[in-house]
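Pinned message: reference record for 16S rRNA (Guanine966-N2)-methyltransferase
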Amino acid sequence: MTRIIAGAAGSTTLRVPKSGTRPTSDRVREALFSSLESRGLVDDTAVADLYAGTGALGLEAASRGAVEVVLVDRAAGAAAACKENARTVQKRVPGVRIDVHAQPALGFLRQTVRTFDLVFIDPPYEVSEQELGEVLEALVPRLTRDAVVVVERSKRSPEPTWPAGLEPFSKRSYGETVAWEAVVATA
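Predicted structure (tokens):
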């Protein structure tokens, strides 16, 4: 069972597609959000959840004070689950804007004009390092000056190749999961 951990929509159960997703565990989400919230990085933010799956990361941010959330996943089942979950969370957090895009992350980033303060990237393990690198590169112009990017991968995956414009500053391991954080590079 996947659920929202805390905030206005805390304990809300999320729909999980029958296959093709690997939702971030409650333990990992709680640790990530405790760290982000302690630094004031969730409240009043615009959030993107790329490779959203159930939308759990973006919707957790909505529950905890983000004002705008975009969920992006190319898989039809995942996008449908995200839409349903977004409607459910929006009932508990009516002031937040939640949009769902059923398309590849790279395509979304290349066409959007929106900017984000906090971005979660949790691709399926089979997504290549090259594709992840292209997504990170396309993301840089979509970030605000103080943005934070969180990349979640298997502990067997190498560290992402960070493009110019992003500086890694944190790596945390949670069992089989590793989360890297990066910030916008300052000149």
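Pinned by admin. Summary line: The radius of gyration is 15 Å.
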